[in-house]
Design a protein that fits this description.
Length: 262
């Protein structure tokens, strides 16, 4: 078991669950030493800190703060030689940023978050490239409202009475358009190492009690379909409630606490 000092960036719906579990010792080997969130700092005894202080204390920085936070803080974390575990994978649609984070001296790892199947898709992609890959995300209309939307589009979302397709475009465009709800599209593209192959679809469904992600891939190796239906987080309906578990498992993978399947 490896001992790892951990800082968490973002104390929102996901970060709060992650920090509570870490401080309760639920991931053997991981010791929470800092929580960075300037607008929602945690109450003591959780160790609220600035990013600078966190970098002085922690070997691993876990980003649960959003694409813009990863864009802003990621290069500083990597330049400080720390290990960065990123959840807001859509920020890496900016290839220059992605390359910067890969350049070191720190190290970048990505968390699969709300979806599964990326290990198999990744294993296949580099041996027998897929012909087509689609990820279709269905969420409640209110969770899909965006500041860039025209008032007519926002009103359609607010007043939707049935499901409809809101956007269909390459993963890079969709993850930028829906930065808090379509990181999964980026994660599929990153797992395949091919941003251009992955088409992402966003569906607004007023009847969607669960957030659904359907990944369909076809190619010479076979046909693959993963369908995930997650309960939304009660604290933030844009995010699935299971995501903190994925983050904790990823941290456990780094300490050696997540046994079994790799
Ligand atoms: N890969 C995946 O499958 C998934 C990825 N995600 C990613 O995780 C992110 C977090 O989700 P969630 O917890 O639900 O979101 P929340 O909005 O509930 O929490 C995010 C928190 O991070 C804070 N924050 C913003 N910028 C910074 C910063 N630079 N440093 C420290 N803290 C910061 C926010 O503060 P403020 O409110 O003031 O901005 C907020 O308190 C999402 O935005 C999304 O990018 C989410 C779900 C799945
Ligand atoms: O939690 C989810 O269902 C997916 C999500 O928000 C994202 O990919 O950003």
């Amino acid at each position: 078991m490896k001992e790892l000092t951990v800082a968490v960036l973002g104390h929102g719906a996901i970060g709060a669950v992650v920090t509570a579990a870490l401080s309760a010792g639920e991931v053997p080997g991981a010791r929470l030493v800092a929580v960075v969130d300037p607008t929602a700092p945690p109450a003591p005894p959780l160790p609220a800190a600035s990013l600078d202080i966190a970098l002085g204390r922690a070997e691993l920085i876990v980003e649960c703060a959003g694409q813009s936070a990863l864009r802003e803080a990621g290069p500083t974390v990597i330049a400080a030689g720390r290990h960065l575990l990123a959840l807001s994978t859509g920020a890496l649609a900016d290839s220059a940023l992605h390359q910067r984070l890969l350049a070191g001296p720190g190290r970048l790892s990505l968390c699969a978050g709300a979806v599964g199947g990326l290990d198999l898709l990744s294993a296949i992609a580099h041996r027998a490239p897929f012909d087509s890959v689609t990820i279709r995300t269905t969420k409640s209309p209110r969770s899909l409202l965006q500041p860039w939307m025209a008032e007519s589009e926002a009103a359609r979302l607010r007043n939707a009475t049935g499901p409809y397709e809101l956007m269909r475009a390459p993963a890079r465009e969709v993850t930028r358009a829906f930065p808090a709800t379509s990181n999964v599209a980026a994660s599929v593209a990153l797992a395949l190492g091919d941003w251009d192959l992955v088409e992402a679809v966003v569906v607004a469904d007023p009847g969607a009690a669960l957030s659904r992600h359907e990944i369909v891939a076809t190619g010479p190796a076979g046909q693959y379909r993963f369908e995930i239906a997650n309960r939304p987080s009660p604290a933030n309906p844009r995010s699935s409630a299971v995501v903190p578990y994925a983050v904790l498992r990823a941290i456990g993978g780094l300490t050696g606490a997540s046994g079994g399947i790799v």
